[in-house]
Amino acid sequence: MDNNNKTFEILMLIKQIYFKSMKKIEISLSETGLTHQQIMVLKIIGHNKEVTITDLCNELYLSKGTVSGIVNRLHQADYIKKTKYDFDKRNTYISFSSKGFEFAKNFREKIEEIFENLFEDMSEKEVDEVIEHLKLIKELL
Q1: Strand 88-96 to 80-85 pairing
Q2: Which CATH class is domain 34-140?
Q3: pLDDT per residue as tens digits for the range 61-102
Q4: CA-to-CA distance for 5 and 42, rounded, in angstroms?
């Protein structure tokens, strides 16, 4: 197998791992009624505290129209609040509402529960190696 095939195999494995993990998360959070994309928006807000539509488009690789629709549905469900600042009238800034903040806190705990035992059959050294290899792949991309 040449390097191109190995590269493709690695990327497909990463994609499969991502989608399988997101499916597990979606199943466990199905009672919330939130979609995968809505959860991703909330995750990004959680990491950044406040974002713009453009920030979300860049993070999610989605069009402005798609992201605006996701944001509007989250706003209608009271997970987020939108703010316009005098210093930047062109952008709307998005942050958690109190309901969104509570959801994010509970979401993190739920994720930790779901994946708590995922690597229990691996040694600490093996888990550290996986982390290092994934970091390397991230940097290469």
Answers
A1: antiparallel
A2: mainly alpha
A3: 999 999 999 999 999 999 999 999 989 888 899 999 999 999
A4: 35
